[in-house]
Amino acid sequence: MSDVEAQSPGPLDTTSKEETHDVKPPQQSQSSLRLVASRLSVHFATDVSTNHADVLLLSCCFISGLVDSTVYDGNALGLVIVVDLRLTNRPGNTIFVGLGGSQGADASKPYGWAKSLTSIFFFFLGCFLWSRFSRLLGPQQRRTLVWSFFLQTLATFLVAGLVAGGAINGARSTIPNDIDWLQEIPVAILSFQAAGQLAGSRALNLSEIPTVVVTSLIYDFGSDPGLGKPLTQNVKRNRRGLAFLGILVGAIVGGWVSRETDRMESALWIAAAVKMLVTVSLVVWPERSG
């Protein structure tokens, strides 16, 4: 055997060198992670585009109808629909608080007003906190909207979990007529997160889709001077009409699901899942140009 042949590297030596060459040094891996983190930070700090953002809020209208009709149909939270959605309707709740103050202890629902008062207070608290949270981080920044809708999603999942786990009575056939004080918990949580939806519509400059109020929506629709214009010439009117339909369809679906299952949580799971889709959509939503 010649000296040249003895010094030639074998197949095993070649493989070892190739494998060693493919391993990235720790400094390069850390640099890649920093680059990804930097890009994500920039991505979430950008303002989202408001083009077609009405689709997201129309989904929230469906959620409002779904949740409110479920708790009304099951009477689990002692909610009643009078002119507007009770859970998210402050004027209606105010009337019920006033009626509660005028009733005696022998009334059929002597503490029914408590749920309305809870709903008003936690909706107000939500408006106070969500609006300041939005202004602090930037109302149209992606991170602001994603965090807002993510927390709303968690709140809805939490209520569904409490009902499904038995902590809150969710069986329609066994719900008391007056009040179970544990039911104040989901009233508070759902009212608080509903304020986040309203804050989202204001942040996206789509106040014509409040997502939680029907009476003003109907007024704005009916009083619109361009009510009879073609579809392509009055976008705000179109949005108001679709928002109303979204709440109506959500109410129909929620009532049907709760009656078929005799449970509250089924519709709440659906509402939470839809809100999660809205959150994920905001993560990948196009950024505002210019």
What this model shows, in words?
The termini are far apart. The chain has helices at 3-7, 11-22, 26-45, 54-74, 90-102, 112-137, 142-164, 184-203, 215-222, 235-261, 265-284. Mean pLDDT is 80; it is low at 14-20 and 73-90. It is mainly alpha-helical.
Largest sheet: none
Secondary-structure element series:
HHHHHHHHHHH
Count of discrete alpha- or pi-helical segments spanning 4 or more residues:
11
Note the gap between the termini.
73 Å
| Residues in helix, % | 55-70%
Shape: globular
Q: For the residues shown, what is the average pLDDT?
A: 80
Brief sketch in words of this structure:
The protein is 67% helix and 0% strand.
List the helices and strands and how they pair.
Layout: H1 3-7, H2 11-22, H3 26-45, H4 54-74, H5 90-102, H6 112-137, H7 142-164, H8 184-203, H9 215-222, H10 235-261, H11 265-284
